[in-house]
Amino acid sequence: MSRKSFRFxxxxxxxxxxxxxxxxxxxxxxxxxxxxxxxxxxxxxxxLRGEIKSHPxxxxxxxxxxxxxxxxxxxxxxxxxxxxxxISSRFFTGIARSPVPVLLPFDAAAYLEAERSxxxxxxxxxxxQADFNPVDMFDAGPAGYSATFSFEPGAGEGMxxxxxARPVEVQITGSALVYDIADPAGGKSEPVKPLATTYPDLRRxxxxxxxxxxxxxxxxxxxxxxxxxxxxxxxxxxxxxxAYPVAERFxxxxxxxGGQRMRPLMDIASNIIDRPADRSADFSYRPSGDIIPNTxxxxxxxxxxxxxxxxxxxxxxxxxxxxxxxxxxxxxxSEGPTAYPWRDNFCESRSFEVWQCGGGYGHQGEDIRAADxxxxxxxxxPCDPKQRAIVAVxxxxxxxxxxxxxxxxxxxSRTEHIRFRYMHMNPHAMNADGLVNGRLVTEGExxxxxxxxxxxxxxxxxxxxxxxxxxTRDGWIWxxxxxxxxxxxxxxxxxxxREIAPEIAGGxxxxxxxxxxxxxxxxxxxxxxxxxx
Length: 533
Prior knowledge:
This protein is of the alpha+beta class. It has helices spanning 3-21, 41-53, 56-59, 79-88, 108-116, 240-252, 427-432, 482-493; strands spanning 33-36, 102-104, 132-141, 144-151, 168-175, 177-180, 203-207, 210-217, 220-227, 255-258, 279-285, 321-323, 352-353, 361-362, 365-370, 389-391, 396-399, 406-412, 417-423, 440-441, 446-449, 464-472, 475-479, 496-499.
């Protein structure tokens, strides 16, 4: 290297070191960083070969020898996977879109063998799925896949005798993208000795309302989870210890069911988010983590998080809109529920586990309110407070049960594996509008109206609850959507907001109840609404 070149490289490195060392400005936002995992398809094919060998009648139908003459990522280079996808896609649409080996409780080889031997077409599919039935939720895309199965009460030999009020739902996600987040509870777990031979690094832990089994296979992060109570069983709720045998039966039944080798994903570094240059004359917001004093679990504070987890369209169609507490709104009379500045409520006290919050309990998301209708006057647009449109924040697939008052939009791309949940819309209206499981929506598409549904009509105030989950090695984790919403709102109004100083309590403040389930309910006569998620 010449002396001139050496000097140029030295100056460049010095400049880079200054950039890296420079602290992030207090009011700047960052995008998340993600790690791209490298898939070991050779190991996946070895496992598939072993699974097929146990079915000699069809073993000769699968071709495992790679074709060296075709491009590296051409699907024809792995004909056994092409053949497997052809079988599995009858039941799991789009399975070949997954860039990671799809592990499901589906013995495709046994199914094909039975089909070849003339088994009736009506033969129950659950026979080849260890008594697990696929729910209408299977999504495969550039980041990985997610699937949900149900285990019916009384199914399976040797299972606990207790009959549950409803089927047990088991979820599995395999992803080549994992979010790098500051995670105070990350990695905490216990081993599962009966499964240690099959899954050497298997970790079991209870987190955010689910028992989870996390493991690495073929270089990919997989998490199996069941919603449960970390306490004694209740008549209509599953205790986590009761969920253990169901989850472990599921894990024992997992087989390679499909997937396709594709170009590897790339690591994604965190960057400072571009924001509008023009300043808004009106929009202001308190910092992330600055919740109303003493409204956190056991008087804990909020969770400062400068991360904009995705570049989204704001979930309400029109401005102005306000991120404000609905359960503690009466404590904030000086600012009101529909006024600037915005205020974070991600870590307000609720009975929901949120490990990003102090004490492990929080709200999971943010309350958003549309502006009050202005008084009628000349040249004003018609305004109906019950018809404020809610829109899709991104192109995504809908995850939703027919009776749920929540709808989740999942993004599965080469750069993101993220979920956005909307709550308090009327489920009957969503069903009528076709906002059902598996539907594809486009960014900006109207998907509902701001409503007040919480188990029943008028169960809360008119507002939208919005939250975000990202996929990590511990599975889907709630993260604060506050800065994501601030960033999206700035793009909606095309102006940059003003961050104002956090509130310093000037005197004694009301104290939230110690138990996480005790949410102080506002007086409905004051118009601030009832208990919120």
